[in-house]
Amino acid sequence: METMMMNFNHHRIKTNGIWMHVAEQGTSGPLVLLLHGFPELWYSWRHQMTYLAGRGYHVVAPDLRGYGDTDSPLSPSSYTIFHVVADLIGLLDHFGEQQAFVAGNDWGAVAAWHLALFRPDRVKGIICLSVPYVPRYPNIRPSESFNQAFGSGFYISQFQEAGRAEKAFARYDYVTVMKKFFLINKPDLLIAPPGMEIIDYLETPSFLPPWITEEELRIYADKFLESGFTGPLNHYRAMDLNWELLAPWQGSKITVPAKLIVGDKDIGFHSGGTKEYIEGNVLKNLVPNIEIVLLDGHHFIQQEKPQEVSAEILSFLRKVTVN
């Protein structure tokens, strides 16, 4: 593991008023940004970084704002999708690239979708894992919508209250918190029963699947022990502010080439309506140039199925480059 960690070049870049930590592999070729989600780090893309760098790409995976060795502003209002996209534009500028390929999982997918929405001139193509592009609903804030649809036990609803999730997470060691999130094996939406915190509701697996080791989980745990969870949770706490600020883009299309990769056992794939949504016309109308791939897997699909995801990313990069 130590040898693998040494294969990456680590440095911090000044962008959009913060210092952002990035891991880098490959020094030439087309730039590919890899964006993690919650509760992750750049390290979630370790397999794809080595795979793509070995095939001629310059691969950069940051810790997003609030995570790991990147700065963590105090206010939730500093975590809008506009802040995150501006951070990424700063990375492109730092590396002297007008355009890049961008892949993201979970919140990283949200960032990739909106980078393509706001600045299509800076994006060659995007690969989004687990989270499809979802349009802004004009008449209701996200927090209100989630409460109405899923109740107060829904994990995003619980994350809205400052300090609540942090206090609940603190009852467990950090490796256990990682296990509870990374190894979710139920396809249902994350909704705790009345009076229960979502972290208490999530099960702690008695054994690890073959795709992740205790040592790898500890890499995440040690970093969250240093940085805490408030920064990552602030992305959820900025969702209503995002809704307010995104009004001018109501109904806008994402026109860049896009690929969506979803695990068929992901959280809410069936019960949450994801399957119907990605198979219907709404997404295809909003993202006309989209390819959709279903894999046998769960939410953190790039770690669970590294070879399949890496191959899907590479095929997309080559297809867009040829076209």
Key terms:
323 residues, alpha/beta, 8-stranded mixed β-sheet, 41% helix, 15% strand
Helix content: 40-55%
SS-based class: alpha/beta
Question: What is the overall shape?
Answer: globular
Biggest sheet architecture: 8 strands, mixed
Which value, in Å, is the CA radius of gyration?
A: 18 Å
Overall number of strands: 8
Q: What is the overall pLDDT average?
A: 95
How far apart lie the N and C ends?
38 Å
- What percent of residues are in strands? 15-25%
* Count of helix runs: 16
Strand order of the largest sheet: 1-2-4-3-5-6-7-8
Q: What is the N-to-C succession of helices and strands?
A: HEEEHEHEHEHHHHHHHHEHHEHH
Low-confidence stretches: none
EC number: 3.3.2.10
Domain AB hydrolase-1: 30-305
Organism: Escallonia herrerae
Catalytic activity: an epoxide + H2O = an ethanediol; (24S)-24,25-epoxycucurbitadienol + H2O = (24R)-24,25-dihydroxycucurbitadienol
Summarize the SSE layout with pairings.
Elements: H1 2-6, E1 9-15, E2 18-25, E3 31-35, H2 46-53, E4 58-62, H3 81-94, E5 100-105, H4 107-118, E6 123-129, H5 142-150, H6 155-159, H7 164-169, H8 174-182, H9 198-201, H10 214-227, H11 230-237, H12 239-245, E7 258-263, H13 274-279, H14 281-286, E8 290-295, H15 301-304, H16 306-322
Parallel strand pairs: 3-4, 3-5, 5-6, 6-7, 7-8
Antiparallel strand pairs: 1-2, 2-4
